[in-house]
Amino acid sequence: MSSWGSSRGKTAGRRTGSTSDERREDEIVDISDESFWEPRPRQVSRDSEGADPEENAGLEAFPEDTELAITSVLMLKRPKHRYRISFGAYALEVHEDVMIKYRMIKGAVFTKSELEEIVAADERQQGYADALKFLSLKPRTTFEIAQRLGEKGWSEETIQDVLARLQSEGYVDDAAYAQEWASQRVKLRGKGKLWVKHELRQKGVSKSHIEEALGEVSEDDEFESALQLGLKKWQGTTGEPLDRKRKTGAFLQRRGFSGSVVSRVMRELGNREQMHGMDDWDEE
């Protein structure tokens, strides 16, 4: 696992607050104190990010080969579910899930190497949260999620860990995504299989998943979609029959329908218009 600082450029324990003497109320609360669990928890006055000015924030500042005891656990007001863990003059911030997993309570002792593992776990947790937020808008492929996380500065190792977790939990499934995409695009969006194939390639779906998904779309479904588009185009086109035929066929090909499908559509349109020669379609 790559180190926290190099993978994202934002250290878990960095201090972003002001170093002035002014402090605001209600920014953080000390959950390491028993009074926190009383009906009205004690509130602690700190600076804007919950850090004492004298604290050395950032894992790189921690001493080597030294056991470090947690002196306080502070819940940050913003962002939610994050805590500042202090070791005397040193501090870092972690997500609530990471804090609980590693039992980071007041008095617990850790070495710097152990804290590096914890910070890496926190990085994975934040990357996972970013991915879930991205997925909340609509389904995505693994490629799209990886691209998004990369844009946000996460390391390749963290991205792969996040993707593996998302796949194991069923949040990401490229095969199912491709099948749903192909079905919707052909049946409801009037796109041919060639168009859909290109779209799925751009989304980073593997060739095998694409072929499997397109195989699930029946020839009749694709033909019906092309026929409806072709009929609409034919009725909206003026000029000589051969000119209308050329424009309609070219339109369907631009929508990703194969030459065989276009020929079948032109033949059907010819039958409806009682015209000969409509089945002779030359691919352009």
TrEMBL record:
Record bears the keyword Nucleus: no
- UniProt keyword list: Cytoplasm
Q: Where is the RecX first three-helical domain?
A: 128-166
The identity of this protein, by name, is Regulatory protein RecX
Q: Which Gene3D superfamilies match?
A: Winged helix-like DNA-binding domain superfamily/Winged helix DNA-binding domain (1.10.10.10)
Major subcellular site: cytoplasm
Acidic residues bias spans: 27-36, 50-62
- Keyword Cytoplasm assigned to the entry: answer is yes
Which residue intervals define the domain RecX third three-helical in the entry?
220-266
Q: Where in the cell? A: Cytoplasm
The family line of this record is:
Belongs to the RecX family.
Region Disordered, residue ranges = 1-62
The record, for InterPro entries, names: RecX_HTH_1st, RecX_HTH_2nd, RecX_HTH_3rd, Regulatory_RecX, WH-like_DNA-bd_sf
The RecX second three-helical domain covers which part of the protein? Answer: 173-214
Say what the protein does. Modulates RecA activity.
Q: Where is the composition biased (Basic and acidic residues)?
A: 37-49
